[in-house]
Amino acid sequence: MRYPKSPFVGNPGLEGEILKVNTAGLAPLLEWLCLTPRVTTYRVNTRRTCVEECKRTVVDKLAAIYGQKAPKVYALSRLTDVLCIDPLDDENIRPDPGLREVIVDTTCGAALLRGAHIYAPGVLAMESNTQVNEMVNVFADLSGKCKRGSTARYDSSQKIFVGQGRTLMQRYQLFNNSDKPATGVAVEMQSNVSGVPVLGDLSNSDILLQNLPSIVCVHVLAPQPGERVLDMCAAPGNKTSHIAEIMNDVGSVVALDSSASRVRNMRPRLCSYQSITTHVFDSTKAAAADLLPTPSTLSDPPFPRASFDRILLDAPCSGLGNRPQLSSNIKRPKILQSYPHVQRRLFAQAVELLRPDGILVYSTCTVTEAECECIVAWALKKFPELRLVDATPRWGGSGLSLPDLDVSKSRLLQRFGPGTFDGDGFETVGFFIAKFQKVA
Ligand SMILES: C[S@@+](CC[C@H](N)C(=O)[O-])C[C@H]1O[C@@H](n2cnc3c(N)ncnc32)[C@H](O)[C@@H]1O
């Protein structure tokens, strides 16, 4: 089967929700969402190490796997904490008819195309008699109809070839019906059709696997040592740690998230930063108009008005910028329509909490007008005290223009989408960044 040209096959109602004004861009956008960003990026914790040091480690790992064919690893001239890994040159692999098959769902398939291995919960089906250490063809099931644990070959026109791997587990370990589901790598990928090197995730306290726009986003916020910074929707904390690193861990970074389990999971990773405090808190209630700033009111949410120098609102969103998207989990327009409501509520709190002259960055990992440019247009109308400022450093393209957001304003935004290459010429996931300053 051919790769899909839209993550919403057969769902025109949903497609219609994505770009309502700039409809000419819709078809290229949908096709682009299905494709894999082929450059892998890591953010380097420059408080602990440097890009050159990490580069040496990654180069050695790649050489051990790919020898002479190892892809290029390089730093970026304008972002001093990013390490990039190019795709392999000649990945033109096809399914080998002599091999047995493993089937994964589309979420797992997307991760494999970006260089991951298959973890046990990701395996939907493995043919009977597959042995440990056996090479297998790996397919992703686009239809969602493959039965978990099935033993027969999954004959479907709706499966796409993703790559080949070597099994580390057998069927009885994967589908054992016990209270303790299997964990760990089930199939170690050897190759994939995207050509993204199969490294798994090398993240540790020195480097973090992170998409380039997420790294750019915190540079746009540009926090300064000694400042008081609020990260309103912080979990899993990837941008929170970046904020603290740029501030040299000096000042105060307050990380809020409404999900208790997500905060619990991010705490161990953030506890080595002196400047970060984390709270389980609903940020739609983060501002308390009647509080005066005192050491105690500043330490726990809700917070007094105008009590932060900078605020990052990396809002909950439809996540449609994630690439590749072989088939979207969002099936109904109503779900898409629900996000702007909470985004506006969070935004209104951010404006209250920001001090005069302070900086607010609004970002999403999605591509819909309603969650990106429309929120900016709404905010500029609703809060005359805000002015839009240039979202630099710039790696994505301009925002889209709308009837109430002219080109002079949309140029200040940063949208990562089809055809918007960053300075070094590679494509990323979809993302949106807007930067505001509160007029004193
Ligand atoms: C896009 S994720 C944030 C990613 C994070 N900034 C990072 O880079 O690691 C959005 C987060 O918003 C949280 N969230 C949703 N509604 C919220 C609310 N009302 N208050 C605080 N957090 C909320 C979700 O639990 C989720 O963790």
Notes on the structure:
The chain has helices at residues 12-18, 26-34, 51-66, 106-113, 171-174, 212-221, 238-246, 260-270, 295-299, 333-353, 373-382, 407-410; strands spanning 40-44, 73-75, 82-85, 100-104, 118-119, 123-126, 135-141, 159-167, 185-192, 207-209, 228-231, 252-257, 276-280, 287-288, 303-304, 308-314, 354-364, 386-389, 414-416, 431-438. The strands form 4 sheets. Strands 11, 12, 13, 16, 17, 18, 19 and 20 form an 8-stranded mixed beta sheet that branches. The longest helix has 21 residues, at 333-353. The model has no long low-confidence stretch (mean pLDDT 94). β12, α8 and β13 form a beta-alpha-beta unit. With 440 residues, it is α/β, with parallel strands linked by helices. It has 12 helices and 20 strands. The chain folds into 2 domains: 100-192, PUA domain (Archaeosine Trna-guanine Transglycosylase, Chain: A, domain 4), CATH 2.30.130; 211-438, 3-Layer(aba) Sandwich (Rossmann fold), CATH 3.40.50.150. Residues 214, 233-239, 256-259, 262, 282-284, 314, 316 line the site of S-adenosylmethionine (SAM). S-adenosylmethionine is lined by residues 214, 233-239, 256-259, 262, 282-284, 314, 316. The active site is at residue 365. This is tRNA (Cytosine(72)-C(5))-methyltransferase NSUN6.
